[in-house]
Amino acid sequence: MAQYKITVNQELLHQLFLGNNKDSGVAALLESVLNQILQAQATEQLKAEPYERTDERQGYRNGTRPHPLTTRVGTITLNVPRFRNGQFSTEMFARYQRSEQALMLTLMEMVINGVSTRKISRITEELCGTEFSKSTVSDLCKKLDPIVKAWNNRDLGEMDYPFVLVDALVLKVREDGRVRSRSAMISIGINTEGYREVIGLMLGDSESEASWGEFFSWLKKRNLRGVDLFVSDDHRGLVKAVRTHFQGVVWQRCQTHFIRNIMDVTPKYIREELYPHLQAILDAPDIDTARLLLNQTLETFEKKAPKAMQVLEMGFDDATAVLELPVKYRRRLRTTNAVERVNEEIRRRERIIRIFPNRESAVRLIGALLMELDDKWSSGKKYLDMNEYLQWQKEQKQSSIRRDIAYAIC
Fold first, then answer.
1. Angle at 14 between CA 11 and CA 19, to 5 degrees
2. DSSP letter at 328?
3. CA distance 237 to 388
4. Quick one: 309 and 375 in the same domain?
5. Domain of 222?
6. Where is this chain compositionally biased, Basic and acidic residues type (predicted)?
7. φ and ψ at residue 228, rounded to 5 degrees
8. Tens digit of pLDDT for each residue in 17-62?
9. Which of 216, 227, 231 has its CA nearest to residue 162?
10. 330 and 194 in one domain?
């Protein structure tokens, strides 16, 4: 990564620390730093400072052009260098602005389609200029859509994904002049290096078995492999699709949803009494202990909460599947909380839109946000240390082979 020497004058520091509007001070500082970086990049590409005479020079400067950039501390103006041969380029801001570009494009589409509020119209005019046309929006979409599409359809065959978490959230999309509910199906995989990845986003008509089946078929076509554990809620269509398309893969029922399902059919006066028993079952150190606690709980509450005990008994095996894994992996794989947090980030943007003008805008906005999360995860800390799991998996396979040999001999 390139390193740049940045200078900050005393006036900027005074505005930053002593000014009345701290955001304006940060914006001024950010503007100064980024413009210095742009000039440094121009020097790198030309291999010469301004007015420097050198045999290595690759071209000549031709002034700058102003470029407004909307940030979280306000709009700043970048002085983008121009070259006589027109070859200056920078990717410095594109990666971190995708989700905000997608959000703005969606708002603009709403204005053009006549379905936005006056507030949204005012926001887009302030950020994008007083006028924008369908052709302007179309040109901007052509730049962003291929990036999101290429990322969302990338090949997954370079890595195994032992753990996969899936969930969906319902969005409102305008189609054929009517507002319809559509499901955004999202999948997060944890690869053998221990990093999280968003491995798929698809907009379906519903959360039916057919929609989830299409989603899983698409993941398999993109070479999703090495899956050992699926984690999701107990949506009937989802679970059927998992068992159809990933036969032999263990399914872990989200324990948060499981407890909620039990509590929904538990009489209010014993909910506080029952909850610690449920938590003890799910926190058990091994499956034998969990089953012992299950039997004790069933015996204690069978007459007080028969429906709740029926849900508990029927869902016990799926909700405790994670107990077969080494202890250090259970906490993060027993619920869909990792996906739920992603959904919360999506909802923050979706509340602004409320109704997407079309399917493409929904995929663009959600996809751009997921790309940024993916970039953050891949450059951050590992989500799980997979060494112990990989060793455990190897031992499990060897044990299975020994059992098969013993059975064949017998």
1. 120
2. G
3. 33
4. yes
5. 152-393
6. 48-59
7. -115, -30
8. 665 665 677 778 778 878 888 888 888 888 888 878 888 888 888 8
9. 227
10. yes
